[in-house]
Amino acid sequence: MHRNLLLDLLSAVYWFDDALQENMEAQGFSRMTRAISFLLLNIVQGEHRAINIARNLGISRQAVSEMLLGLRDRGVLEIREDPTDRRSRIVDFSPEFADQGAACGEILMKLESKLGRRIGFETLKALRVALAADWGPPPKLHQLSKEEIERGKAVWKKQIRIDGAAQPRKVKKSADGSARRVRMSV
After folding, report:
1. 127 and 109 in contact (C-beta within 8 Å)?
2. What CATH number did the domain enclosing 69 receive?
3. In this predicted model, what pLDDT tens digit does every residue of 29-85 receive, in sequence order?
4. Burial class of residue 157 (count of CB atoms within 10 Å of its CB; 0-12, 13-18, 19+)
């Protein structure tokens, strides 16, 4: 059965975010939405310019601005003018939230270490290299033929195998109630 790389990547992202959220909650911190989690991860990783956070998340500056203002109003962030560009803003954790931000960074490092022990550190290193590689611009494919479209229908309906034994999938609810597809063992 065809394994869709995009869904596998998304499942890996959800695995990390679910693990992060569960471990933050175990430390006494409240859960956040995925969007807020991803925004805060940018700050944990050292990105403090709102425009770059928007670019990293692939969303509009306006959407990021709304989230940032909400987080500022909740006491999570401080927002100030960028001294090098008055049109830009710099965001950082508020002093009240600094411990939570530091806990997030530490938990992420521990999760990566745990993942390395589970899948092998060489595999983790190869994953990092592959994800950090320059993939070039998104490719533009040729116009699909009717035969290719029919083959695509069969692949996604799981009527044919293209890379090994078929393994059905089911929907699994995660702790935050979001659904994701997981591979079932057969």
Report:
1. no
2. 1.10.10.10
3. 888 899 999 999 999 889 999 889 999 999 999 999 999 999 999 999 999 988 888
4. exposed
Q: Is the domain of 111 the same as that of 171?
A: no
Q: Which residues 6+ apart lie within 8 Å of 65 measured at CB?
A: 50
Domain enclosing residue 168, as ranges: 1-22+145-186
Q: Is residue 178 domain-resident?
A: yes
Residues 67 and 15 reside in one and the same domain:
no
pLDDT tens figures, 106-139: 999 999 999 999 999 999 999 999 999 999 999 9
Q: Which whole-number Å values give the CA distances from 128 to 11, 34, 40, in the listed order?
A: 16, 22, 21
125 and 53 within one domain: yes
Whether the Cβ atoms of residue 102 and residue 91 lie closer than 8 Å to each other: no
Name the strand (E) or helix (H) holding 157. Answer: none
* Total count of domains within the chain: 2
